[in-house]
Amino acid sequence: MPPRTASDPGPLALVVEDESGIADILVAYLQRDGMRTQRAVDGPSALRLFGQLRPDIVLLDIHLPGMDGVDVLKAIRSDSDTPVIMVTALADDVDKLLSLRMGADDYVVKPFSPAEVVARVRAVLRRTGARPAETRAAPIRVGRLVVDMEAHGASTVDDDGTLHPLPLTLTEFRLLACLASQPRRCFSRSHLIETCLPESDALDRVIDSHLSKLRRKLQDAGQEGLIETVRSIGYRLWPGP
Ligand code: CA
Fold first, then answer.
1. Residue 30 CB partners (closer than 8 Å, separation 6+)
2. What is the 201 CA–ligand 1 centroid distance (Å)?
């Protein structure tokens, strides 16, 4: 792990665990490895923090009070492909989850060694391509659109420089960031799937559906027509003449 700097705060892990002793240990080990952490003790607060913070990875206990971890995972997966590692006290749960094809990125069974969990977190972050700190870039500006790779967010900017954040899902953000990385270039649907939904076996129409939601949000922000469809090929960002 390279030393941290002010511009490299490290990946953010959301630790969802109702047993405070276990959460304490996980947080201590993750922080020692250079990660930032946030904690949640139940499903609803986990989802609220997930929406607010857009963490790089989630460590999710299955047996939580109120709403169990499987439902939390479902809710996370309904709008994002952020890596999730499920934590459980029962090996049987892993079989159940695998058979449900729930889309967790890895599984850890209690009792676990905290060092092993950190190694798994690192491996999942590498595999899922969470951008390493050293490749973080300055915000990209295309017309009135600002895409901030570091903050993982996009905004529109008005005449006096005020930023208006766009409420994007992670996949929508990735698509917009990809298109904005090279304005006017046409990206094929297969390229967008590979780049923006690498963990899924998504079809072209899944990309089309994400793109149409993204367009609607841009339209709501006064940016109609920013994304063009290139017939038979894919999409491009067209900032105008
Ligand atoms: Ca528990």
1. 13, 15, 37, 118, 121
2. 31
